[in-house]
Each structure stands twice: as C-alpha cells, then as structure tokens.
Specification:
The protein is of the alpha+beta class. The protein has a domain of 282 residues: Cytochrome p450 (Orthogonal Bundle), CATH 1.10.630.10. The strands form 3 sheets. It has a 5-stranded mixed sheet, with helices on both faces. A 3-stranded antiparallel sheet has the order 4-10-9. A two-stranded antiparallel ribbon has the order 6-7. The mean pLDDT is 94. The chain binds protoporphyrin IX containing FE. The site of protoporphyrin IX containing FE (HEM) has 26 residues, from α12, α13 and α17.
Length: 413
C-alpha cells in the first residue's frame, strides 16, 4: 500500500541528497512512487514504468516547463532579462508538437552521420592532447584537465563558435544551470539574468554573422534551410537552437565522463576488465548512464487530469521525473545497485529520455565518453582515485557530476 502522496521532507538541494541521492531515491520509490512536494510545487515520479509512460504520452505530458527556473523569478531578474533583450522562446527540449516536430526534423539532418564522422577524429585528437598533458603529472584533477574542456571543445566546434570565446561561454552556461535548475537568491538571479541576456545576444550576433558568411558547420547547415525557406526555420528559432545546444552539449557530457571514470575506478575489477578487453567499453558507457547518469531529473507538466501510478493529478501539475531513480528501479533492472559493465540490458535506461524528445546528442555523448575511456585504459591502466577525497556536486535538481575528480598514477605515489 503506497504511503502519503505529500512529502515535505524530500529536498533535492540537501547536502546528503546531492552527495548521494541513491539511498533517498530507493526509499521514496518503495514508500510512495509518486508524491507531491509543496516546497517545489512538483510531483516527483520515481518508477521506471511511470517515467517511460510519461515520456511516451506527449498529449498528456507537455515538455514546455523543461527549461523554466524551478523557483519563480524575482522582479529584478525579469526586468534584467527584458532590458537585456533576452528573447529565447521554446525550440526543442521545452517545445511541444507541432512546432517541435518541425524544428527537430531539421536538427536531425544537421546532426547527420557525416557531421558526426567529421567531428570524431577532431574530438579524438583533442582528447589525446588533453590526456597526454594530464598524465604528465602524477596527480591531477580530471575535471579541470579533461572532462570540462573536452565536451565544450566538441559542441563549440560543431556549432562553429570561435575557440577564443570558450571560457566566456562556459561561464555563462554554469550560471544558466544555477538559474534554471538551482536555487539562486533574488540578487543572484538578477546578476545571472544580465549574463543570460548577454549570452542570448551573443548567439543572435553569431547567427547573423554566419548568415552573412556561411562556413562548414552545424549553424550554417541550419541557415541553408532558412535561406531556402525562411518559414521552415526562422532566425529566432535557429538562435534558440544554438542557445540550447551550447548548453545541452557539454554540462551533461562533462558530468557523464567524470561519473564514468569515478565509478570504473571505484570498481577496480570492472576497470581492469576494460583495460584487458576494450570491446567492453561501449557497454560500460551504457551501464554508467543507468547506474550514475548525469541528468538525474527532467521535467514535464500535465495538460489534463491524469493518473500516475496510484495517484491522481490535475491539469497543470508539474512533474519531476527522477531519471536517476529509474536506472536503479528493481522492477526494471536485476540487482540495480550492482555496477556491471557486462549487464545485457543496461542500454534500456531512460537517461536520454524516450520518444519524440529522445536526446539528439546521445551519439555524440556516447562517442566522447568512449574515446576518453579508450585512451585512459590504454595509456594509464594503473590510474586510481586519490583516496579519501570528498566529492562535491553543484546544487541543482538536474545536472550531477563531481566538481573535482582527483586521480593519480605512476610509480611515485
Ligand atoms: C551524457 C550526456 C547527455 C545526457 C544524459 C542527456 C540527456 C538528455 C535528456 C534527459 C533529454 C530530454 C529528453 C526528453 O525530454 O524526453 C535530452 C534532450 C536533448 N539533448 Fe541531451 N543529453 C546528453 C548530451 C547531449 C549532447 C552532447 C547534446 C548536443 C550535442 C544534447 C542535446 C539534446 C537536445 C537538443 C535535446 C532536446 C531534444 C528534443 O527536445 O527533441 N544532449 N538530453
């Protein structure tokens, strides 16, 4: 019999939850698979089957709140966005059909196999450079040296952003994570809003520069569609896509790569299995996505009254789908708390969503983590976690990975 469907005690910003959400997720899943949290004004959904059903029913569950700030914006922040010219509308992850269908169709073309195959050797060369530099030291932070710079390089190269702007863009993106998924104070909100408006205007300027001077990149592919038919993709929509991808394409993958390295080194036998047999690496990436994903929660809102598991919810009910919980659901995965790179059904995880919003960057994210693991297992099989380090995580509801990941290798430790 499920417990009370209201749970004021669930706090995704609590230190213990941020450090290790999994025991909390297991406890709530057993007690109340779907429950309302008044402080967040959200229904939290924990079971694999319920989340899969929600992703599959786009009529009842709208994606339009996916990028909204979790907490209402203070007046000062709203004003800063308006004054700064921030005009980001819904384009993909926060957009519903039919508009979503049209924009996504063009994006799928721009994420073509050709573009990805052109990108792969560049990512591999960059990864090799970063890993080589990092391994020259015996002790290093793999986030600073590898997992932070590599995904930014990949997505900004795909989009066509000039490398000189990387640090500025990364800083805007970090703020955007706090803005939409964190709990910033009103003063912090207002400060971040100024940066977000600059970030938006940067994307507008970039799109207009590319319109005047097309190059061989993802943005120019979109602009070619626009030139042929301005209604098929408007300039605002293209700017929205670039604004969205420049965020989605790296925070997620930075965290997944860090989680992968951490979990494999914590399970030494699994790390050694990969060193001995690199053909296990692709399966290991899926197991990390199931066991310790980097997007732990995603949002939907109901368009009409409906039922989630045992509970009834009304229209306009906001939902927080615990993807991290779904990967550890014993009703879907046998021995879910065991990390096993040979698990045959790991790829059934919901870490990239399901259905019409299935993550467009999944092949890129998989490619990048695979490249990193291939390099590290080949060049540094003696790699270890620096013992007794305490991992810290950014305080937000969705994006999870350690802020630092200290590793060591070599003869003198
Ligand atoms: C480990 C890395 C990643 C994870 C865990 C992840 C996860 C997700 C999730 C959960 C969704 C939402 C699915 C839904 O609403 O049903 C999503 C959507 C999306 N992701 Fe990713 N993502 C990752 C990497 C990337 C990368 C590298 C890119 C871009 C290069 C990207 C681009 C997108 C886009 C554009 C969408 C929206 C698609 C749509 O609404 O049609 N993601 N991703």
């Amino acid at each position: 019999m499920p417990g009370c469907p209201v749970a004021s005690s669930f706090d995704p910003f609590a230190a213990g939850y941020l450090a290790d959400p999994y025991p909390h997720l297991a406890a709530v899943r057993d007690r109340t698979p779907a429950f309302y949290v008044p402080e967040l004004d959200m229904w939290v959904v924990t079971r694999y089957a319920d989340i899969e059903a929600i992703f599959s029913d786009v009529e009842t569950f709208s994606a339009r709140i996916a990028q909204d700030p979790v907490f209402p914006l203070a007046e000062q922040a709203r004003a800063a966005l308006v004054e700064g010219g921030f005009r980001a509308g819904a384009t993909m992850s926060n957009c519903d059909p039919p508009k979503h269908t049209r924009i996504r169709r063009h994006n799928m073309r721009a994420f073509s196999a050709r573009r990805i195959s052109v990108l792969e050797p560049k990512v591999a060369a960059k990864a090799e450079e970063l890993v080589g530099r990092m391994l020259a030291a015996e002790r290093f932070d793999a986030v600073a040296g590898l997992t932070y710079p590599l995904p930014a390089y990949m997505i900004f190269t795909l989009i066509g952003f000039p490398p000189r702007d990387t640090e500025m863009l990364k800083s805007w993106c970090g703020n955007r994570m706090a803005f939409s998924w964190g709990r910033p104070s009103p003063a912090e909100q207002a400060e971040i809003a100024v940066g977000m408006a600059r970030y938006w205007r940067y994307c507008e300027q970039f799109v207009s520069d590319r319109l005047a001077d097309p190059q061989d990149d993802f943005t120019s592919d979109h602009l070619a569609v626009h030139r042929a038919d301005p209604e098929a993709l408007t300039l605002d929509e293209i700017t929205g896509v670039i604004y969205g991808l420049s965020f989605a394409g790296h925070e997620t993958t930075t965290n997944l790569t860090s989680n992968a390295i951490r979990r494999l080194l914590e399970h030494r036998d699994q790390w050694e299995a990969l060193c001995a047999d690199p053909s296990l690496i692709s399966g290991a990436v899926e197991e990390v996505l199931r066991y310790d994903t980097s997007v732990v929660a995603w949002r939907r809102v109901t368009t009409r009254p409906t039922r989630i598991g045992e509970v009834e919810v009304g229209a306009e009910a906001k939902l927080m789908l615990l993807l991290a919980g779904s990967g550890r659901d014993p009703a879907r995965f046998a021995a879910p708390d065991t990390f096993d790179v040979r698990r045959v059904d790991a790829a059934r995880h919901l870490a990239f969503g399901r259905g019409i919003h299935f993550c467009l960057g999944a092949p890129l994210a998989r490619m990048e983590v695979r490249i990193v693991l291939e390099l590290l297992t080949r060049l540094a099989p003696d790699l270890e976690l620096v013992p007794d380090q305490v991992f810290t995580f950014p305080p937000n509801i969705s994006f999870r990975g350690p802020q630092q990941l200290w590793l060591q290798h070599g003869p003198r430790r």
